[in-house]
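ASSEMBLY PREDICTION REQUEST
Request ID: AP-0331
Submitted by: J.K., bench scientist
Number of chains: two
Total residues: 694
Priority: normal
Notes: Please return the full assembly, not individual chains.
Input sequences:
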Amino acid sequence: AAGLPAVAQGTPSVRWRMSTGWPKSLDEMYGSADALCKRVSELTEGKFEIRAFPGGELVPYAQNMEAVSNGTIECNHVLATAHIGTNTAVAFDTGLSFGMNARQHNAWVQRGGGLELLREMYKKHGIVNFVCGNVGVQMGGWFRKEIKSLADLQGLKMRVGGIGGMVLTKLGAIPQQIPPGDIYPSLEKGTIDAAEWIGPYDDEKLGLNKVAPFYYSPGWWEGSASITTMVNEKAWNDLPAPFKAAFETACNEQTLRMNAAYDALNPPALRRLVAAGAKLNFFPKDVMDAAYKTSQELWVELADKNPDFAKIYPEWRKFQEGQVAWFRVAESALDNFTFNAVSRSSK
Amino acid sequence: AAGLPAVAQGTPSVRWRMSTGWPKSLDEMYGSADALCKRVSELTEGKFEIRAFPGGELVPYAQNMEAVSNGTIECNHVLATAHIGTNTAVAFDTGLSFGMNARQHNAWVQRGGGLELLREMYKKHGIVNFVCGNVGVQMGGWFRKEIKSLADLQGLKMRVGGIGGMVLTKLGAIPQQIPPGDIYPSLEKGTIDAAEWIGPYDDEKLGLNKVAPFYYSPGWWEGSASITTMVNEKAWNDLPAPFKAAFETACNEQTLRMNAAYDALNPPALRRLVAAGAKLNFFPKDVMDAAYKTSQELWVELADKNPDFAKIYPEWRKFQEGQVAWFRVAESALDNFTFNAVSRSSK
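STATUS: Completed
Returned structure:
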């Protein structure tokens, strides 16, 4: 159209493939990857086209990190902790159990030295990482029976992976790896006793409230589920500067927008789940205390085994302590007052 | 350089001026406006250049909204509540006292129908608005004497404007309008009893701890200080689509990055202030309760007087109630546990 900046003659066209860690049914998570690609295209007048693929289509879910590392695909869109088998330090990219919340994590990444530390670690894998989304605090999952104390976790077969699975193992539970489509029948038959998925908006689609009515909060192992796009280092270095700027800006935009989407969609979904019979519950104090203590022990163990983990952990922890001190003075003080006041007046 | 997308022949060049509401000494706030402009330039290969100006250089601070409305300047970068004299409903753009926190506000704007409501209101002023930053919860300011109860606010002369000033007037205080450079001498001489500015990082530069040592939290009138760029509607409509995309994406990026910057910079600044003698305090419960109640009464009054306020308020409030219900289940539950646990172990 007249007045539109014409596509420059001679501008190179770049085509990338993005393998996501999500089935299309996770419409916000997959949708955010898709929105990222669309934005990059829009910002480059269609010269830099990235196509997002549902999980498993290009490479198996578990190989999303390796495939970027070896250049099979240019980039992915994943929860980095799905790849702690490759390097446990990727956990700092997603967030640790009882770690920083979404805002604090973003502060660490954007202005607290976090991105630099993560980049140094990923460089060893030939990867350049970008934060490109956040789910916020996830739920603790669906349980067939009430959890009255820590003792009820003994021998409990639960669908949970990553860091949560490592901590829960130490607490006596038995983590299970089960694909999303098998969660419902496994809970129905009692093959497993519990399953965590994401939060109200995504959980609702699986209908787990019908087979495991006890819905626990909070998902302490994912207090900030930060989403990552890992980019093959050579593919990144080959990009023209304006395409790099477009990619980075679009990632930052999705970090804001994915979190906003989940924050907007979770409240009505939770109301519908409770109306449909979900019994909302909080983990008992002794479970929370034991999980916190066990998590701290786990960080020491992981630091002993992995120099990358050992390098990032003290910096990350120091930043968290500063955030906690400040959030207790301002954010939490006002949140707690306002949430109580609004809650009272809206009853 | 070879391989770079060449600037398209025939692409129109656009030059805009952005009048900010900040002196350059607010280096993060002004810096975010500047970063927004630089990013837009980078995304458009220098074809869309916006130049940010310190407050007062292009138009007086108080005329930033009017100047965009009448096309004197193409855009501004302000705290919208500085313009409640023009339309009280702009308060929903910045955030109300005891309103939503930064994440909740962004959820409302991005996915909760908030942007559409704000756009409809601003359209009457010939303005298209964009959220482009957030400071988070501000501090409640510096006081020469301790505030032990609500009675201590009677007759208290305080430098505070906007919504905070309206609520504090109802509580018996006497708001004062004083330019930043005059705050220190006014407090020193006792011409005023208290002054609010922003938060630890910016407050530190004014050195107010030396003349008004009682530092109060939280700044309940700015629980989410969301920053706005108002764009002249005609200037916006004249932009080519890729320039619109660049501007919008850069605003979303700064919404994330300004908040991250303040979250990263405030904790060490608060530590330094306390070490330098600031006496950190929380507003007494009766002050908080009275301020909350008075705020709710104020919304009813403002809705009675202004149809724009009346239209947005019930939608905004309904969204806040949903956010509060959900945040109490997940975010706050985990924040409160983790903050206590980390705080105990970091002592």
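REVIEWER COMMENTS: Residues 179 and 281 of chain B are 25 Å apart (CA to CA).
SIGN-OFF: pending second reviewer
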